[in-house]
Amino acid sequence: MSTRAISAQPAPSAVLELLKPITWFPPMWAFGCGVVSAGVPIAGRWTMVVAGVALAGPLVCATSQAVNDWYDRYVDAINEPHRPIPSGRIPGRWGLYIAMIWTALSFEVAVSLGTAVLAAAILGLALAWAYSAPPFRLKRNGWLGNAAVAICYEGLPWFTGAAVMIGAVPNWQIILLALVYSVGAHGIMTLNDFKSVEGDIRTGIASLPVLLGVDRAARLACAVMLIPQVVVVALLLGWDRPEFALVVGGLTSVQLVLMQHLLRRPRENAPWYNSTGVTLYVIGMLVSAFAVRHLAF
Known about the structure:
Blueprint: H1 3-7, H2 12-19, H3 25-38, H4 46-71, H5 73-79, H6 94-112, H7 115-132, H8 142-166, H9 172-192, H10 197-203, H11 208-212, H12 214-238, H13 242-264, H14 266-292
InterPro entries: Chl_synth (IPR006372), Prenyltransferase_related (IPR050475), UbiA_prenyltransferase (IPR000537), UbiA_sf (IPR044878)
Keywords: Cell membrane, Chlorophyll biosynthesis, Membrane, Transferase, Transmembrane, Transmembrane helix
Membrane topology: Multi-pass membrane protein
């Protein structure tokens, strides 16, 4: 690569593409669920809420995307040469620099939001780097990699949203809901692996469809998505929230029906299920957040 290419700075549009705004929605939604679950009036806290949303999506999640693309740049040069780093639109080592800058920005914003948020952000950033960077490269193992992504996309943002509103560690009911929905998100991550089975085999990534086969991985993903939601229904009933339990149970039942279509042709139908069944899953998260907002702290 020429000295000119190395010294060149990337265009803002290429940086934005590297940070993948489309991936920010899940953690931002989970953060919103955390805000709702806290049961604290939002008036007077808008600045902290906006900062928290930025932390969940455009900062921590975007950091994970930059880290992933940097450490996957050689594979992407073969499979997806149009992406910002292999195409040269992010020249030299700018991909790594951006990942480091976004890590520092995430840390600075987290510091301003309190100790509980800072702890969650540090864990999220550590998992973001461990997922893609050696020596850990958690993404090479479908069990560990999917778990890291699930907790970063669902559990930690939910915890962060509640912590921002409460100003401390949330109560155990909120933490438990965030954890249970993170477990279910592991199944969602498995669905996302169906599209790249051949590439994963060639590059040595042991995703669950590679390890178990597509059909078994699909059945496992469905079970992993369903069981936590059944647990949520039981929890809501135990917390005397029967009306919310009924709604979450109804959403789960519809997902069960949709899964029958998914399992007929998992690889072909996974994108369809992501836009239907997964949508119902995240709606159930919000319903559950409303259910616990008035529980005693």
